[in-house]
TrEMBL record:
Coiled coil: none
InterPro entries associated with the record: FTHF_cligase-like_sf, LUD_dom, NagB/RpiA_transferase-like
Record-given protein name: Lactate utilization protein C
TM helices/strands, residue ranges: none
Pfam families assigned: LUD_dom
The organism's taxonomic lineage, starting at the top: Bacteria, Bacillati, Actinomycetota, Actinomycetes, Micrococcales
Database matches in PANTHER family: LACTATE UTILIZATION PROTEIN C
Domain of life: Bacteria
């Protein structure tokens, strides 16, 4: 018997005669009621407030915009499931996968990473990655210093409960809500302490 099984068995044994949990009143908003264009604009506003770069493009314009954002960088990392067409105009694509993961040194040497996302929350300006094939391992979105995140307009929720309904809680979730930051001994705020210092979000109208 593994330690995990033993712990779970002990918990089940301790809870076998526990009373049923009562329903918890949840009176907060479950829906924003915002139409698509207003969700896009609200997310854009929140991301700009977090000092992220934001643009809204039609799907055929994604390759040119991604190439422009990558600029003069020589290499960038993508997860295995990211659509090749979206980076077709940018040379230097390197694929990272769970089967053939790049080393930390290789990820650190890359100029950027390009991923999709599982969901975005307009009201909080939150981007959520869940490790799906177009998002890849958590490490690739944390180590390179520039993250270009492609967000389909249909994946933008108005408020958090709307986004949660579409997520699989068994996946490893990475939530991005503004830059990581800390304060030094003189209380000077320093941003970009953990993860990329530059975040560009491309919102795709499909």
């Amino acid at each position: 018997m593994s330690a995990r099984t033993e712990i779970l068995d002990r918990l089940r044994s301790a809870l076998h005669d526990a009373p049923a949990a009562p329903d918890i009143p949840r009176h907060y908003r479950h829906e924003s009621g915002l139409p698509g264009d207003e969700r896009i604009e609200l997310l854009r506003d929140r991301l700009l407030d977090y000092k992220a770069g934001v643009c809204v493009v039609d799907e055929p314009d994604v390759p040119a915009r991604v190439a422009e954002l990558l600029g003069k960088g020589t290499t960038y990392v993508v997860p295995p499931g990211l659509e090749e067409a979206w980076t077709a105009l940018a040379p230097g694509r390197i694929t990272d996968s769970a089967e053939e993961p790049l080393s930390v040194a290789e990820l650190d040497a890359a100029d950027a990473v390009v991923t999709g996302c599982a969901a975005a929350v307009a009201e909080t300006g939150t981007i959520i990655l869940d490790g799906s094939p177009d998002q890849g391992r958590r490490a690739i979105s944390l180590i390179p210093d520039h993250h270009i995140c492609l967000v389909r307009a249909g994946d933008i929720a108005g408020v958090l409960p709307e986004a949660l309904r579409g997520l699989d809680g068994t996946h490893p979730l990475t939530w991005i809500s503004g830059p990581s930051a800390t304060s030094d001994i003189e209380l000077e705020r320093v941003e970009g302490v953990h993860g990329p210092r530059t975040l560009d979000v491309v919102i795709i109208r499909v």
